Amino acid sequence: MARPVIGIIGNSYLLNDQYPVHAGGQMNADALTKVSGCLPLIIPSDPRHVSVDELLDICDGFLLTGGRPNVHPEEYGEDETEAHGEFDRARDALVLPLVRACVDRGQPFLGICRGFQEVNVAMGGTLYPEIRDLPGRMNHRMPPDGTLEEKFELRHDVRFTPGGVFHAVLGADQVRTNTLHGQGIKEPGPRVMIDGYADDGTPEAIYIKGAVGFTLAVQWHPEWDAANDPVSRPLFSQFGDAARHWAAGSKTPALKAV
User: What does pTM read for this prediction?
Assistant: First the structure.
């Protein structure tokens, strides 16, 4: 049986500061292949090259990856400031309507970091430009120095709603995660359910209320060492199951609480 195809949302980069590329981190493909049991396909995140309808037909699910550029605040009705950092308007133009289409169709997606923020904005929510500037919040950004292992090390706890969706998926109401983000949810969209928080009150885990399909998104990076991490493995495993259901022609029931 053919593996379900998962579209990995690519990011735009300049290779050697000159050559423009669309790229995706290898650890994303590793997680999808080794844990989800799916076929990873990197998507150029630009509506000049692909359309939402084409992607919905070709892919069985989508991995909404992290990325350095942020969602432009115009997408949630706010003005651009220096604190908002870099942007990728082409990715905004493709992924935000893609998220809404997946919710409507019941087609599965898993959001990571920027992808987590895209889900909230796509569903009518807003973002803080810099979490570390808020009173009582920790610095959630990636450490500027150190090895890759040190940058992705587990740095804070996330507590889930007891008996909620993430509790059911991960089999625990508290886990320890890495953290490599600057922005975060300010106001959740009307259907965005915050199901997990960091110790400082930062939203870390969401899903879409009333959605038929798999709509989970997390603010941390579960793709890191996903095959061995006890938090990442069940998340990617159940995402793969949802993609197989979709590929087989059946919509995946909404995830239930324990």
Answer: 0.94
